[in-house]
Design brief:
Blueprint lengths: L3 E5 L4 E2 H13 L3 E5 L8 E8 L7 E9 L14 E4 L4 H5 L3 H12 L4 E4 L3 H7 L6 E2 L6 H6 L3 E2 L10 E3 L2 E4 L5 H14 L1
Helix pairs in contact: 3-4
Length: about 190
């Protein structure tokens, strides 16, 4: 049965972590509303493409324009069956937005499915919703998640694993998109 999903994004969201989940969810006939603080339907955010090229950390390149289809002021969390938070650089500043944190807290208080990948976990830590929960994220976020009370599950060497704890499915980076979205879709079906 098609469900309504909210995706939170911002400028320099990771391209594959927004675009691929959007396409997977649309393929499954779900409705996905894409929202960004201070943006309106018809506007867009710029994405970043992160790659793993053998350096000590990922590289970053300019990605695509990713369309926003819902005014930020129109976001009403109770109208959604699930939440998706991609990574990239956007979570660095989205975690500072109190309304973003309130939206995230609503999904946890309502026990609705939440899918978070890569640096999106910064928002979970800032919203104080990971205490006692098993999580994965980009490995550099491990100290931040542990300080927020999360239980860290080591990602696979290929960063292609996913971790499920109740209504929360987390993953370390875009190579995990198949596992991450498979588990999120499973949670949506059970909801």
């Amino acid at each position: 049965m098609p469900q309504r999903i909210l995706m939170l994004v911002g400028d320099f969201v990771e391209d594959y972590e927004a675009m691929v989940p959007l396409q997977i969810l649309l393929m499954e006939s779900h409705r996905v509303d894409i929202a960004c603080p201070d943006k309106k339907a018809g506007e867009y955010v710029v994405t970043a493409i992160h790659d793993f090229e053998g350096h000590q950390t990922y590289s970053e390149k300019r990605g695509h324009n990713f369309a926003i289809n819902l005014d930020w002021n129109a976001v009403e969390p109770r109208n959604y069956d699930g939440l998706v938070i991609p990574g990239g650089r956007a979570p660095e500043y989205l975690q500072l937005n109190e309304r973003v944190l309130d939206v995230v807290r609503y999904f946890f208080q309502s026990n609705k499915p939440v899918a978070v990948t890569c640096h999106g976990a910064m928002i979970l830590a800032a919203a104080d919703v990971v205490r006692g929960r098993c999580c994965q994220a980009y490995p550099s976020l491990k100290p931040e998640l542990l300080r927020a009370g999360a239980r860290w599950q080591e990602p696979s060497a290929g960063l292609d694993s996913a971790c499920v704890d109740g209504n929360l499915v987390t993953a370390p980076a875009w190579p995990a998109n198949p596992a991450w979205m498979r588990e999120f879709l499973r949670l949506l079906r059970c909801d």
